[in-house]
Specification:
Layout: H1 6-20, H2 25-54, H3 56-107, H4 131-144
Amino acid sequence: MFDIGFFELLVIAVVGLLVIGPERLPETIRGILLTIGRVKRGLSNTRQELERQIGADDIRRQLHNEEIMARLEQTRQDIDHTLNTPKAIADDIKSSFDGSATKNAGDEPVAEAGENTRKDDKKTIQPAAPASQAAAISADDNSEI
């Protein structure tokens, strides 16, 4: 409240001792401190009465509740964003796969099972030989080397 250091208090005590005298100094200090205490209590009571009349407690409570509601709304928005982000990503991925499958289906006809043909190539590619024939062919190829 007052920016009074030790040196200033010492000067005030010495001046008080010289002016008032050593006999009356203790009761004068006690009287001053009692007066200061009464003034503080009176100001505190006045402040409390004013706050009660203007409804300061209700205003503080309402501001606190509004702050809590704002935090709750922000938390709800964060949760919605967190829950909707993976769904949006999954929808994007699904739509990109659906779009590419539709695009490929329109470009070239899909060959039937066992049919290995290409539109550009006029020759037909034969299906792969069974495993026993493939082993015999690879044995013949190795014998030539």
